[in-house]
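tokens incoming
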């Protein structure tokens, strides 16, 4: 919980810096936000590649879930599930 709070506060600070930098036209204030965006894009790309290379990890992850919809998701064809996840990640990367 503390780590999530710290990351959220850091993101608020970075976004505030980017907003201030854009308003005052100071490019140096926008650099941390730009670096975060590059890091986030790279991380999402690595997730997409790992889903392509190791599609069985999705099934392993689903087995660890403790939700009431676990059986419904596990009943989906694994290939279809991989395609759905890759489509979702591709849409996210396209927006970024």
């Amino acid at each position: 919980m503390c780590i999530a709070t710290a990351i959220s506060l850091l993101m608020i600070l970075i976004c505030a810096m980017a907003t201030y930098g854009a308003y005052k036209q100071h490019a140096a204030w926008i650099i941390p936000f730009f670096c975060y965006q590059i890091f986030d894009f790279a991380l999402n790309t690595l997730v997409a590649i790992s889903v392509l290379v190791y599609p069985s990890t999705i099934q392993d992850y689903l087995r660890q879930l403790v939700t009431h919809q676990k059986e419904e998701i596990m009943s989906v064809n694994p290939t279809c599930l991989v395609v759905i996840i890759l489509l979702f990640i591709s849409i996210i990367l396209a927006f970024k």
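note: The CA atoms of residues 21 and 29 lie 5 Å apart.
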